[in-house]
User: Which sequence fits this backbone?
């Protein structure tokens, strides 16, 4: 039996101690077997669950999911503490120094008059901190592991800041039309369809920037709409005593159009 005091309420220090116990000899077999890569996906999934709680405006759920994300931070840090590389104090020290350095208008004598200036200073200081000498350096620093719509938007934003951009949304839309034509030709055998599809998606993200839409949110809404309308189609088919497999595409298309008309009334 591990010597650990049970309490009505625990603190961050208790969390560190619990993780240390789980990873120690005689601790949990599963926890001891893990490494950074084996729980990498867990970190991603827990982060998205926080996002879902935020979208649902569910504070209790958010509190729980933030705890799960915090567990991932502690888990990864404990692995390196065991090796003598760094511990949680080192992690905290790093982010504290970064925040102080990137807020010279708070912790220094820099004067700013708007949030836009704050962001400009942040970006400039980040480039110095990361030794990014060129715009290409800053583009390459965008994490490849990000959802690719977000990565594309970030890369495009960095190009835009140095003037490499369309003048307005019309130019970006024209590029989408061009990419649609190139994809069409590739699908017919003239070119690489996957490459051209990527170009089309990249061009579409450009349009999203100009209309100030979040491409991830836009695609989420489109997926939700598709599911909602498909559910109406399925209810109508099942209500007629048939299955989807027994229903022709033409019949389902007609039901889809009816669902669409009902939704847009």
Assistant:
């Amino acid at each position: 039996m591990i010597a650990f005091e049970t309490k009505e309420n625990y603190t961050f220090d208790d969390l560190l101690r619990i993780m240390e116990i789980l990873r120690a000899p005689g601790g949990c077999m599963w926890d001891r077997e893990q490494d950074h890569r084996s729980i990498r996906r867990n970190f991603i999934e827990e982060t998205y669950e926080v996002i879902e709680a935020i979208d649902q405006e569910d504070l209790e759920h958010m509190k729980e999911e933030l705890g799960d994300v915090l567990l991932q931070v502690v888990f990864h840090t404990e692995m390196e503490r065991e090796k003598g590389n760094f511990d949680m104090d080192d992690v905290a020290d790093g982010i504290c120094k970064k925040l102080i350095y990137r807020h010279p208008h708070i912790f220094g004598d820099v004067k700013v008059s708007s949030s836009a200036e704050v962001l400009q200073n942040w970006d400039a200081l980040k480039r110095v901190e990361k030794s990014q000498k060129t715009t290409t350096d800053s583009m390459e620093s965008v994490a490849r592991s990000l959802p690719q719509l977000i990565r594309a938007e970030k890369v495009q934003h960095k190009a835009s800041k140095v003037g490499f951009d369309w003048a307005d949304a019309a130019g970006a839309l024209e590029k989408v039309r061009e990419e649609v034509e190139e994809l069409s030709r590739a699908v017919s055998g003239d070119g690489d369809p996957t490459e051209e599809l990527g170009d089309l998606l990249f061009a579409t993200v450009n349009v999203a920037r100009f209309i100030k839409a979040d491409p991830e949110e836009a695609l989420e809404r489109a997926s939700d709409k598709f599911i909602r309308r498909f559910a109406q189609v399925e209810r109508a088919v099942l209500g007629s005593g048939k299955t989807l497999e027994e229903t022709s595409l033409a019949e389902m298309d007609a039901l889809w159009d009816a669902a669409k008309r009902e939704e847009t009334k």
Notes: The mean pLDDT is 95. Residues 59-83 form the longest helix (25 residues). The CA atoms of residues 8 and 14 lie 12 Å apart. The chain has 13 helices and no strands.
